[in-house]
Amino acid sequence: MAEASGLAIDGIIPADFVHPPSGVHYRVYTEAGKVWMSYQRDTTPGKPGNPLNGRQELRFYIGSGKRGRTFLFEQDGYWFESPINWYGKKRVWDMAPNHLADRQAPLTMPVDPGCLHCHASAVATSMPDARNHYAGAPLAAGGITCAGCHGDASAHVASRGKVAMPKLDALEPVRRDSVCLNCHLEGETAVDRLGKKVQDFRPGDSLFDFEQVFVYRTEKGSGGRATSQWEALLQSECKKKSGERLTCTTCHDPHGSPSPADRVAFYRQRCLACHNGQDFAARHHPETPDCTSCHMARADSSDIAHEQVTDHFIRKRLPAGTLDAAEPGVLEAVGAEKAGDRDLGLAYAQMAVRGDREAAARAMELLSRAEKSAQGAETDFQLHSELGFLEQESGHSAAASEEYERAIRANPYDSLALGDLALIRARQHQVAAAERLWKAAFEHDPVQIGAGLNFAIMECQTGNRKEAAEALGRVLEFAPDDADAERFLSAIESGTTSCSEPEDGKR
């Protein structure tokens, strides 16, 4: 964990490969004491995409390299992840997860403080206009420090050790377990509690006061998620029979991992601490000392390429390389606490964004009910923004507009609400309102490339050639491989597309 992040120059892993679907040639290298990532595409006939040639200075690395590593770069105060990852198990460079088949270089992957807090203890707070906009560097120091798990050590240090550090084992189980779970519990989806952010979690807190994590009720195991095994462990007979005595540190040492030569013996002793009947070890398959090879199958991860997941369901026997896949359906919160309408509704709304129509209906019912109760406070922009999306998908433009407007009043920087409301206004021929909304969305959040393109189209259609070209230039500054923006800007500059002046100056 101490090596989970740091300066790029301290964690460089050189790269030199071509991504076939996009035809982009990526390199990671050092030059004059700095780390750079270049991206190029040649113009050979028959090759995908347009010519591309650029580079970014990589400032920080994220990931110890055991599973993988990525790098961070900055542009105009906005921080992004590199589009390529190092995958430690197979020792290969490839595209970032979910971008393996991209035909354009994905250069607008935002650096979220909610993700960073699992890789560093000194994470900066992002500015209110965008989650990846920081006043300075997003990390003050690399790696997870002692304070990341043990809490603030200032009183301990100031007293020269007389003030004891909190004893994690003395905490109530949910607070003890939360120290690990705040980074190692992902579920199918997660929802921030109203007014809370998971990055504000501190050791000694209950994670579930900050977020609720959801899985499908039919899920057995961890659904193939590479870094989230708690939900599988909860279903295991080991956990059910051991109760609160069994936790992550029962088997794992957070201060280090056994060497490859010692791994089998190390984890076998963890098993035998509970399975300690007379002569058990001698009788129970003495020819196979690796307990995990039979009871904790390893299979390809469903969320990280080139990675495997160890199944913590701990079954009697499961053929190697197989894991149960959960069917979409009823969501339930991980842990004992029942989710309220607001949090469960937001969870279903996230499933709806992925195309689950049944989840959309459930989300609409739950969020509408939450909106009518005390849960639907005017400050809850997430609730109103998701309701707006659901209403818009249902063809209810008036209701969607009202929800988006409530979301924007609660959070003027809600770029998704701004962009979607702009689309409604454009379809209603409210040109000025649509322009204003798209401009606000893209101006504060350059990840919203679609809003930038739509703003440029609208500016051109209303005769503002210069403004349209400037907007497209900014799109290409952040997304230099965006083919639509490149073609549009080229057409404006060549005169192929005429941004004619509006009649009588009307807009």
Q: What does it look like?
A:
It is a single chain. Among the domains are: 5-149, no CATH class; 220-325, no CATH class; 412-507, Serine Threonine Protein Phosphatase 5, Tetratricopeptide repeat (Alpha Horseshoe). It starts with a strand and ends in a 13-residue tail after the last helix. The model is unreliable at 502-507 (pLDDT under 50). The chain has helices spanning 113-116, 146-150, 154-158, 173-184, 230-233, 237-242, 248-251, 263-272, 280-283, 291-295, 341-353, 357-372, 381-393, 397-410, 415-427, 431-444, 449-461, 465-478, 483-494, and strands spanning 5-7, 15-19, 24-31, 34-41, 52-62, 68-75, 78-81, 84-87, 92-95, 109-110, 122-123, 139-141, 189-192, 211-216, 298-300, 308-310, 331-333. 38% of the residues are buried. The protein is 36% helix and 16% strand. The protein is an alpha+beta fold and 507 residues long. It contains 19 helices and 17 strands. The strands form four sheets. Strands 1, 2, 3, 4, 5, 6, 7, 8, 9 and 10 form a ten-stranded antiparallel beta sheet that branches. Helix 17 (449-461) packs antiparallel against helix 18 (465-478) and helix 18 (465-478) packs antiparallel against helix 19 (483-494).
